[in-house]
């Protein structure tokens, strides 16, 4: 894979305990808060401040209880592997389908099922291990991560077949760069053409939302199903309202006739 930042998010070199400080403690605190989605009845969410105090220790103990492990309050590399298991599962998933288009949808669904979600604080959004994994080690408010999510899925599928996704598009975190490259290589199907012939878009293709009457694309994701005027999608950095700067990977239903949607064909991936 070209997008390898996820590997750093899965590794903890040293055991951490109350009194520990630093970046690794922050990573533990991030994963404790994210695991609250896996275990909604377990108290895990804590401050992400890099200080392993009594609150973090209690959250670690609660996580150990959720896994029926001895209650130590200590984070070993083995326990960290359990904390980060959702990301490991998603990024190492292999699609069962031999067809590339179906494989893209299956791998995207795996990330969806693992509840890929950002973290936020009072100063910034688009934070955390999922965002850094999608955005080549970067996170923070400037990094809207929908394009990084799309290219991660394409990278997983292409590399599983011994190929590179950069054969069809440049590696980028920008929707504009993706779309403009599609215009140059003939892969981008304009909304006006899709309005006349929706059959040109297929599951596995990448959709790009564009501001009307302007070459300015602001959100992207995958088409998982096409049914008349409706497309089902899997997209990152969105929410239940369809925001282009939301919080997680969501499956959505969109009426493509009510928005300016162009489509990037993945033929040849």
Automatic annotation (TrEMBL):
Q: Name one Pfam family in it.
A: PG_binding_1
Read off the Gene3D superfamilies from this record.
PGBD-like superfamily/PGBD
Q: Which residues form the Peptidoglycan binding-like domain?
A: 22-83
The secretion signal range is none
Family annotation (InterPro entries): Peptidoglycan-bd-like (IPR002477), PGBD-like_sf (IPR036365), PGBDSf (IPR036366)
Q: What is this protein called?
A: Peptidoglycan-binding protein
Protein's organism: Spirosoma soli
